[in-house]
Prior knowledge:
Layout: H1 6-13, H2 23-26, H3 36-42, H4 49-54, H5 74-80, H6 82-95, H7 105-113, H8 122-146
Helix pairs in contact: 5-6, 6-8
Amino acid sequence: MDAFSVSSAWESTRASHPSVYWWKYVWNKWVHPKAGFFWRLMHKAISTDERMKSLGFRFLSCCLCCSSPHSKSISNLFVQGELAASLWSFFASHLNISISQAQSLEQRLESWWTDTLCSQYSFLRNSIALFILWEVWKDRNSLFMTT
């Protein structure tokens, strides 16, 4: 029988969750401490119009980041929105990454981070994905606060 230790008690009582492909891209020493944003984003816990409505808030909603008159979802903001789409397209073309237009955020990140054609630039590729998401979020918040 193994000796008791705090770590053995922790391991036997903690709730273990299945690992997700994106954790190693978000939680590493090279990522800025504001990476908590990415964790919240991947768990759909950021304050998009869609999320606020699901929590019971009632308000008129429209996209601030593009000319589309619909409410903002995570995929719309970070994948299909005008700024996001142009950033993904620009960097994908320079890194020779194939992306499709109709993807959820999870699908976009998984295809971006697992693209083997771009393995020689993996650190750059991984960092650029986080940069795109952060810049789109900052732009959205800037527009939100000025309107």
